[in-house]
Write a structure and sequence with these properties.
It is a single chain. The protein is an alpha/beta fold. The chain is built from 19 helices and 13 strands. It has helices spanning about 1-5, 20-35, 75-85, 90-105, 120-125, 140-155, 190-200, 215-225, 240, 255-260, 280-295, 320-325, 335-340, 355-365, 375-385, 400-410, 415-435, 440-450, 455-460; strands at about 10-15, 40-45, 60, 110-115, 130-135, 205-210, 230-235, 270, 300, 330, 345-350, 370, 390-395. Helix 4 (about 90-105) runs parallel beside helix 5, helix 11 packs across helix 16 and helix 16 crosses helix 17 (about 415-435). The two termini are about 25 Å apart.
């Protein structure tokens, strides 16, 4: 606790142990550390962060018996439920001990910042009289979609007719009913509605932090701020705010950077569908041959568990494919994505459109092929293709001919070149928001002052 004593004020972070959630939380920790706060990370035993990557942080494991869980789309809700249930008691004990110790250590717990899916933290913080702040790891617009589900439920419109899914959602154009995070064509269970409630109800939390910026989501942020009585702090993109060590759960193959060095500027299509998505053997084969037939150089991430945990990618791709591609393509198990997107050779990104991937691609001016799979990815893809117009939609299309065509459209055709120019303009706007006087810069100042306004005396 020597670090804590020196800095006087500590912020406790409670992250959700999924790659797309852990990354922005630890990035936020680096941002707040740069502003003078001591950072304490109270984390589940499931997929714990590596303390060696953040020696300036204090890490405390919550003994929650969640280590046996596996991450997949099938049991994701089970994992969220288990962590919310099993982490409550150990977090309450730990925070209670921190409050007792702070008079001895000279370090005050200023607040707790927690992932929005870990709604149990709110009640723990409230009971201990510690201010709680929600971190939204998705775009701000995503909160509006959850509110829409509640409105449909209240109007008895669920189940919703499948024939109407393509219709735009009133007040949220161009988002459609099909872009909602969960299917509404069947009855929604009470358990799932409780989860939705956790996504829109900030309970007694005193603020909300977003990994976004006003220039990307001005209208959504304005609409949300009118609906909630607590301050919002859009201080993104986090990874551009403060330098941070790797937060990857998977080992990053750095050799791909050397391969990129041999490629021409803007010539390579980077392909990655994130850390969770699983595709079948046919989809893998069609993707492979679509890329091969396009004639475009590509860097393709295929995780060990992307198709079948028991098989490597070599099991599914024959020698003819490798002969056809030669040195033009490189397949890796995981890549240092921010480095890849920042490389001059990368001219396009075929992505699942997770929030982190979307923001990272925009920050580097790289246009996208959008293949959303679940959750907020459909919303992000819709914004990329229809609002910002810097992406091509590939949803529900997975044959080699369509993949070849989309790849060439993005990488060679005039359409793709125009998207690249528009994406570079977006990049410039984001960079301006990070400079003094910019929206994210000023919002971070406001957040720092807000956290510093909390005092033990005022809460006693």
């Amino acid at each position: 606790m020597a670090e804590c004593r020196a800095r006087k004020r500590a912020v406790v972070l409670v992250p959700m142990p999924l790659q797309g959630h852990m990354t922005p939380m630890l990035q936020l920790g680096s941002i707040l550390y740069s502003k003078g706060f001591s950072i304490v990370v109270a984390h589940s035993e499931f997929r714990p962060p590596n303390p060696l990557n953040h020696p300036e942080f204090i890490f405390h494991p919550l003994l929650d018996d969640s280590s046996g869980y596996k991450t997949s789309l099938v049991n994701l809700m089970d994992l969220i439920s288990a962590i919310n249930s099993n982490c409550r008691a150990p977090l309450q004990e730990y925070l209670g001990q921190l409050k007792k110790d702070q008079t001895l250590e000279g370090c005050e717990v200023a607040c707790v910042i927690y992932d929005s899916v870990l709604f149990f933290v709110d009640s723990v913080a409230t009971q201990l009289n510690i201010p709680g702040i929600v971190l939204r790891t998705s775009m701000a617009s995503y909160m509006l979609l959850y509110r829409c589900i509640f409105q449909l439920q209240a109007q008895n419109l669920i189940p919703f007719p499948e024939s109407r899914l393509q219709e735009p959602i009133p007040e949220l154009y161009p988002l459609r009913f099909k872009d909602l995070p969960f299917s509404i064509t069947a009855e929604i269970s009470e358990e799932l509605m409780d989860f939705f409630d956790s996504m829109v109800n900030i309970r007694s939390s005193v603020a909300v932090i977003f990994n976004t910026t006003d220039c990307l989501e001005h209208s959504s942020l304005s609409l949300l701020q009118k609906q909630y009585q607590v301050p919002f702090f859009p201080i993104g993109p986090f990874h551009k705010m403060a330098p941070a060590a790797s937060t990857s759960f998977l080992e990053e193959d750095q050799t791909c950077i050397a391969w990129l060095e041999k490629q021409a500027p803007n010539s390579v299509l980077y392909v990655s569908l994130g850390s969770i998505a699983i595709i079948n053997e046919q989809e893998l084969t069609e993707t492979a041959w679509g890329l091969a037939n396009s004639g475009i150089p590509f860097l393709w991430v295929v995780r060990c568990d992307s198709v079948n945990e028991a098989q490597s990618v070599d099991h599914f791709l024959d020698g003819h494919f490798k002969e056809s591609v030669g040195e033009r393509g490189l397949i890796v198990k995981w890549a240092p994505q921010k480095k890849v997107l920042a490389h001059r050779a990368v001219g396009g990104f075929w992505s699942h459109c997770g929030c982190n991937s979307t923001i990272e691609s925009i920050c580097e001016g790289v246009p996208m092929i959008c293949r959303p799979l679940f959750g907020d990815q459909r919303l992000n893809a819709r914004y990329l293709t229809c609002v910002w117009k810097v992406g091509l939609e590939m949803e529900n299309v997975w044959d080699r001919g369509s993949i070849e065509k989309a790849t060439r459209r993005l990488m060679i055709d005039t359409e793709g070149k125009e998207m690249r120019q528009d994406m570079l303009l977006m990049k410039d706007k984001i960079e301006a928001s990070l400079q003094k006087g910019g929206s994210s810069y000023e919002s971070l100042i406001d957040l720092t002052q807000f956290i510093n306004s909390f005092s033990t005396a005022a809460r006693e």
